[in-house]
UniProtKB/TrEMBL annotation:
Gene3D superfamilies: P-loop containing nucleotide triphosphate hydrolases. This is Putative ABC transport system ATP-binding protein. GO terms for molecular function: ATP binding; ATP hydrolysis activity. It comes from the Bacteria. PROSITE patterns: ABC_TRANSPORTER_1, ABC_TRANSPORTER_2. InterPro entries: AAA+_ATPase, ABC_transporter-like_ATP-bd, ABC_transporter-like_CS, ABC_transporter_ATP-bind, P-loop_NTPase. Keywords: ATP-binding, Cell membrane, Membrane, Nucleotide-binding, Transport. The keyword Secreted does not apply.
Length: 264
């Protein structure tokens, strides 16, 4: 489904701030893989997702989605096959527009339907209503509410819905629950898991929560210093505990997870 071949990227090359963020990275994802991604600060996790999304072009290597070479496809052209969520709930929605307008925009963008200026049709409104209802947050009765008035968790759930309203080939989640309080974060995680399972969306999810990384998905990708240190799957992953993973990481990488990851 996704193939990364020998990807390297260096920021600020030939300056004192030169930083090799990804180094000869190879990765293959199967259709429907839900991969959690962990690693210390600066390991290259966000850069990996940004390169896949087309935010940055790699210096070397190629990116294939469903066998198609996307290496030089512009970010906005990848947006109809890739959903990308970030930590900040303020990103990804238009605050002065209503819930249904935001959904309408996302729907038009991803499906190539006519522009929103034609208005939201009855059929679409009903579809949005049902999709919102499935979130169980009561948002279906607030479709005319401006998104800026929603809580962070509600906004993140809506952003997720917008990213998946037309099923993307690939979903990229960059610590998308990290800015939420623990209870809301858990709720958004459950919604995330349900949406991914229902539509079998191939997903890469960065998290700093090690137990979430082991609980959700079918593989865990562990990054260090711009490379994949190791991947957990199958029996090894099933039997993995947070404690064992912390010590495995330091023994394999001579590096430590951040305090934030270990304390949570
Ligand atoms: N746009 C950029 N310009 C310059 N350097 C960058 C840029 N983006 C990332 N870097 C550098 O690349 C390295 C990898 O950063 P990245 O954000 O991918 O790490 P991360 O694993 O997501 O870390 P964190 O857990 O802190 O989010 C870091 O040294 C970072 O400073
Ligand atoms: Mg990051």
């Amino acid at each position: 489904m996704l193939d990364l071949k020998d990807i390297s990227i260096t920021f600020n090359a030939h300056t004192v701030n030169e930083r090799k963020a990804l180094s000869h990275l190879n990765l293959h994802l199967d259709d429907g893989d839900f991969v959690t991604v962990i690693g210390s600060n600066g390991a290259g996790k966000s850069t990996l997702l940004n390169v896949i999304a087309g935010t940055y072009e790699p210096d070397e290597g190629s990116i294939f989605i469903d066998g198609q070479d996307m290496t030089f496809t512009k970010e906005h052209k990848r947006a109809n096959v890739i959903g990308h969520l970030f930590q900040d709930p303020m990103k990804g929605t238009a605050p002065n527009m209503t819930i249904e307008e935001n959904l309408g925009l996302a729907y038009c963008r991803a499906s190539g339907h006519g522009p929103l200026s034609l208005g939201i049709r009855k059929k679409e409104r009903e579809f949005f209503y049902e999709t919102l209802k499935a979130l169980n947050l009561g948002l279906e009765d607030r479709m005319k509410t401006e998104v800026g008035l929603l809580s962070g968790g509600q906004r993140q759930a809506l952003t997720l819905l917008m990213a998946t309203i037309v099923t993307p080939k690939l979903l990229l989640l960059d610590e998308h629950t990290a800015a939420l309080d623990p209870k809301t974060s858990e709720k958004v995680m459950t919604i995330t898991n349900d949406i991914i399972a229902e539509h079998h969306i191939t997903t890469l999810m960065i998290t700093h929560n090690i137990s979430n990384a082991l609980e959700y998905g079918n593989k865990t990708l562990v990054m260090n210093d711009g490379q994949i240190a190791f991947i957990l799957e199958g029996e090894e992953r099933k039997n993995m505990t947070v404690e064992k993973l912390i010590s495995l990481y330091s023994s394999k990488t001579e590096n430590e997870f951040s305090d934030r990851m270990i304390l949570e």
